[in-house]
Amino acid sequence: MDNFKFHNPVKIIFGKDTIREIGSEIHSHDISKVLILMGSGSVKKNGVYEQVIDSLEKYGIDFIEQWGVTPNPVLSHAEETLEIARSEKVQAILAVGGGSVIDEAKAIAAGYYAPDIWSIFEKTYKPTNALPLFTVLTISATASEINSFGVLTNDTENKKWSFGSKYSYPKVSIIDPSVQKFLPINQTINGGVDTLSHIMEFYFMGENEESTLAINEALMRTVIKSIDELVADPLNYDWRANLAWCSSLALQGITGVSMGGGEFACHRIEHAISALHPTVAHAEGLSIVFPAWIEYVNSLKPHIFERWAKNVWEADSVEAGIEKMKEKFKFWGAPVSLSEFNIEADEFEGIAENALLIGEVGKIKELNKQDIINILNIAQ
Ligand code: NZQ
Ligand code: ZN
To answer: Which of 37, 80, 206, 279 has the fewest C-beta atoms lying within 10 Å of its C-beta?
Structure first.
């Protein structure tokens, strides 16, 4: 195994009826005024909003509300919210929602001390501080509740970029899987596919790190089983809880131990797709790109892809593993081809150029523009 550093400072409070603990957690950090950031309103329908407000009021925490974070959150909304946070002199951000809300909250929290938000994503400014961030998670997918990464789309330049900073870990994240039971089933599947993708991004970098590879295989199998169970019975709390915990574990450090920082070519290609087509959900782009990328690169590292096919999909070849994964995605209702979104071949060059804007894409194979176009052709 390669040398590694492991550090994750996020306090997780997990389980049924835990949301009402948010007030006391914020209070214990000597914070008396927060900006609550939310999406388009699902938290009012599922009771999360009411529990959060009750808890803040109980502990005398003043708050202002900001709504309107979109899936694939955008820079313009983050900038507008940052102005409010500054003028209202809030002491912390409380993100109540999914990865999109938490990611935008991270951008605002770090942007509070930066010359402007986008410079953090362009890496021309390195954060030196951030407002404290607290989260109440409502959809398990990205692991943003337990990591230091944020993803935002610059909506004037069509760039979906990410940043990571040691100042951007949430202080406390509350995960109550029971509030996910009324998620539309496609959102549950999106969460599972994103989780699976995060694990694969690390797994394929492996060689002989048996502990990390074995953990990742167990997680992948559990994610697949959890989605199968939830497709059959969306109200099953135990499978909700298992999927939620797998999601958090998938991108908080453990799955990447000694994995060279992960591969992440599929994420980079997907971010380019959803930057240009914001109606494509992150996980929808991933379920289309991942099988095609595996098909394109597996011969460069056959042993790890054969191990994945055998230990995750009970398949005796990589090709059979890819086929089983695609069949499973189709069974769940996840998309497996770009044509399902009417994304045609004449757009592939633009997507490839967009993915390459930040720099190199891919480690197992460094992908040039033509490679990305070839992968998109396979995914057509
Ligand atoms: O807007 P609201 O009303 O909150 O509705 C949301 C949204 O429409 C809805 N939803 C959330 N919880 C719900 C619910 N509906 C009913 N009941 C509930 N309990 O679900 C929709 C999707 O929410 P969103 O936050 O967009 O989903 P997700 O958590 O998948 O986040 C996706 C974003 O995260 C980025 C993605 O690129 C994408 O922009 N990522 C962030 C990462 C990170 N920070 O580490 C890594 C990932 O790879 C990813 O790139
Ligand atoms: Zn992802």
So the answer is: 279
